[in-house]
TrEMBL record:
One Pfam family of this chain: GRIP
Annotated segments matching region Disordered: 1-183
PANTHER family: GRIP AND COILED-COIL DOMAIN-CONTAINING PROTEIN 1
Span of domain GRIP: 182-232
Membrane topology: Peripheral membrane protein
Name this polypeptide is given: GRIP domain-containing protein
Gene3D superfamilies hit by this protein: 1.10.287.2610
Residue stretches of biased makeup (Basic and acidic residues): 1-17, 28-49, 59-72, 91-136
PROSITE patterns recorded: GRIP
UniProt subcellular location: Cytoplasm; Endomembrane system
Amino acid sequence: MQERLDLAVEERERAEEQASTFSRRRARELEELKQKARDAERALGRAVEDKDDLASSQKELRRQKEDLERRAAQANEEVSEVRQAMGQLRDALDDSEKQARDLEKEKADLRRAFDETQNRLEKLQKSSKTMSDELRAIQTAKTRALDSNVQSSRSSTESSRSRLTSPTPKSRAVAAQPSGTADSSGIDYVYLKNVLLQFMEQRDKKHQQALIPVLGMLLHFDKKDEQKWTAAVSTR
């Protein structure tokens, strides 16, 4: 009986010991689980923080991306404007160069026309001087012819008077008729025709104005007539 009691006590002690061991193991496992739960909570908190940080980072990246896209679009627009301005400047430069070439050509043409006009003016001045000399010679010849006519007329008159007073009236001499190089008005119409033809053929007003004094000497212009002819040439 005592042996059974001892066995029962041993079994109870062994059972209590096993229960204590199991309880300690369970407590240790529970503590480990609690620690794991705390670690999981901390990890979850860190994950939430990381998620928030990631969301903030994504938001910042999205903002930076939008800002970069906006700046890129603005830069592209500025590049387009710069290219357009460069094109306009290039066109303006081409136009300026073309205008410069045209001006150089026009300058050369004007210089050539000026030289030609200068040469024609010099020739016309020489021709005008020659015409003036010829006109003076004609006027001198006309004056001499008029003087000769007057002298002949006086001689004829004196001869007639002497014949009227002569005792032999039947002997009558034939009076000579006066002659001259120009017509009764003293104008050389061939020379005048040539001067008028040159005047009408001239396209340059300066050349025409240079011929007016010659015409004035031929047609006996006064100062007022020359002014009228000069004004008429200037207003053409």
